[in-house]
Amino acid sequence: MQTAHRSIVVLTGAGISAESGLATFRDKDGLWEGHRVEDVACPEAFARDPARVQRFYNLRRAGLQTVEPNAAHLALARLQRDYPGEVTLLTQNVDDLHERAGSQGVIHMHGELLKVFCGRCGWKRGWQGDLTGSDPCPSCERTHTLRPDIVWFGEIPYRMDEIEDVLMRAEVFAAIGTSGHVYPAAGFVSLARFHGAATIEINAQGTQVSGQFDRHLVGPATVEVARWVEECLG
Ligand code: NAD
Predict the structure, then answer these.
(1) Is 110 an active-site residue?
(2) What is the CA radius of gyration of the chain?
(3) Which terminal residue of the chain, N or C, has fewer Cβ atoms less than 10 Å from its own Cβ?
């Protein structure tokens, strides 16, 4: 007989969006879309060359309009909808594919590509088009202060207190399409496990944190996530 779990926490990474056509973080050369992380994804890069960083995220934002959620995003939305217990979705992804698949209350710990904020006054809003240094902040009206709402390397991920709370209560923790290279997300498995969760890793290949999981489903997310969701829904 299968036991129903009351609380499932799912962490997703770039691998879940790969089959939608979005590049994962690191290819074999250690580059993201042909750029060094130090040139486009840290506050120092933005201070040094804001136009280059804005261009990078403008391209990613435009690219997002050309892709669709895949079977893995859809399966997780179904899990949230049909599972009798609580299903919390944490993502490191800055895309909006979980929302477009129908997921609710997604915690974007690394921010969202389709939002911007003012580094001066804190104004934050949705933003669909390109962003340039000459766009004035609609609130404080200064220029050169708006930036993508992305948590860069060296910055603190969003909503960590809430995340720790759900991880400590999780009965099942699943990590999908994440390499386990980026902390604090890479440490979530050990926290959930310490508090008694059963842990499962779903990935196209083994990762440097695979040893910390009880169970592994190895293969493309579109296949393996759909399979796992079927299993959870019994
Ligand atoms: P990562 O690129 O470091 O790792 C991707 C993982 O996904 C790898 O372990 C790889 O084996 C796996 N993978 C690749 N294709 C897969 C598939 N089809 N099915 C299952 N697994 C697959 O990504 P990460 O761990 O998420 O790195 C974190 C950083 O990447 C985050 O900070 C995030 O903000 C950023 N990022 C986000 C996006 C996005 O929003 N779509 C894209 C690129 C990078």
Answers:
(1) yes
(2) 18
(3) N
